[in-house]
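Re: How this chain folds, sequence and tokenised backbone to follow
Notation: Tokens come from a learned vocabulary of local backbone shapes, not from coordinates.
Start of record: The labelled sequence and token lines come straight after this line.
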Amino acid sequence: MSSHRRVWYPYVSPFDPCPPIKAKAYSTPPSLFLGYQPPNLEQFTPMEALKIGTLWKVFYDPWYSPYEVSTEEDQS
């Protein structure tokens, strides 16, 4: 499974008065890579779905700050 984390390298001006942020990370939604919703997808229970925000497990994306380690990276 591919990572939903992407990195963007913005232009750094030599005249910028602030220290530059050379790499910016962002998260892409899992639905971007699915194309269409196939039938019979695995679902969360109704209570879990209310807490998480989606009914289907393939659409769930836990967002992690770039400064913390996700459990997905720990298992690799």
Remarks:
- The first strand starts at residue 5 and ends at 8.
